[in-house]
């Protein structure tokens, strides 16, 4: 994506108001001055996060027409919008999102309002998808507590659960993309992904805010359960 500097001269300031905290004012100013937020409104995307997936896909070419895609932590629906646009073609392909938060309908996608940690969630996702996914996407993050270490551990747990779902359900050759945070404690996860996939990358798309500890882990070309069975027999 280009043109980030087009809006550089526009700086909106939010005046101090009674009842508006300094942190809330800074958040409002950041939103109002964020070119990705403005562009998402112009392009019809639910959130600026849509551009993170667009930028990653433009670089790594994950999403293709006719694929089945699972979107974990789908609210507010921006990643589902991108997946529908790039994967649904001529009646082929499917996109299923899940989130415990309500999501307005996304044309072409099925949205499950359900916590992914619910024991029924994996089965319902596969049933709704109509088969094994080609791609598992996860933009899940735990609600923040303000304690960085706690927030990191909680989000890493979601990342690990998403990875477990991916290796249990993906088609051979499929891909897994998940949000993570800088800060360690991901050694075991990386070891598992490197064993199960042909390549693993750390990705920070330009749409991730400067200074954010957010990263994405991209695991490409799932080796498949058959390979693991052969290794265990050998």
TrEMBL record:
GO terms for molecular function: rRNA (uridine-2'-O-)-methyltransferase activity. This is Ribosomal RNA large subunit methyltransferase E. InterPro entries: RNA_methyltr_RlmE (IPR050082), RNA_MeTrfase_FtsJ_dom (IPR002877), rRNA-MeTfrase_E (IPR015507), SAM-dependent_MTases_sf (IPR029063). S-adenosyl-L-methionine binds at residues 77, 79, 99, 115, 139. It catalyses: uridine(2552) in 23S rRNA + S-adenosyl-L-methionine = 2'-O-methyluridine(2552) in 23S rRNA + S-adenosyl-L-homocysteine + H(+). SUPFAM superfamilies: S-adenosyl-L-methionine-dependent methyltransferases. Keywords: Cytoplasm, Methyltransferase, rRNA processing, S-adenosyl-L-methionine, Transferase. Belongs to the class I-like SAM-binding methyltransferase superfamily. RNA methyltransferase RlmE family.
């Amino acid at each position: 994506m280009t043109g980030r500097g087009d809006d550089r001269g526009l700086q909106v300031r939010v005046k101090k108001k009674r009842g508006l905290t300094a942190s809330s004012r800074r958040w409002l100013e950041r939103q109002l001055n964020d070119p990705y937020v403005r562009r998402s409104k112009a392009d019809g995307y639910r959130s600026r996060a849509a551009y993170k997936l667009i930028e990653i896909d433009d670089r790594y070419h994950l999403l293709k027409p006719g694929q089945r895609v699972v979107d974990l932590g789908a609210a507010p629906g921006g990643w589902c919008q991108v997946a529908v646009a790039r994967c649904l073609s001529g009646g082929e392909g499917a996109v299923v999102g899940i989130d415990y938060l309500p999501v307005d309908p996304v044309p072409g996608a099925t949205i499950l309002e359900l916590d992914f940690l619910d024991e029924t969630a994996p089965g319902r996702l596969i049933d709704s998808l109509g088969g094994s996914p080609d791609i598992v996407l996860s933009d899940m993050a735990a609600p923040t507590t303000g304690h960085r270490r706690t927030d990191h551990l909680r989000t890493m747990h979601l990342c690990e659960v998403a990875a477990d779902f991916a290796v249990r359900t993906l088609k051979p050759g499929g891909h897994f993309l998940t949000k993570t945070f800088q800060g360690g404690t991901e050694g075991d996860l990386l070891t598992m992904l490197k064993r199960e996939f042909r390549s693993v990358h750390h990705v920070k798309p330009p749409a991730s805010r400067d200074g954010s500890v957010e990263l994405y882990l991209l695991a490409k070309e799932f080796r498949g359960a058959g390979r693991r069975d052969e290794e265990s027999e050998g």
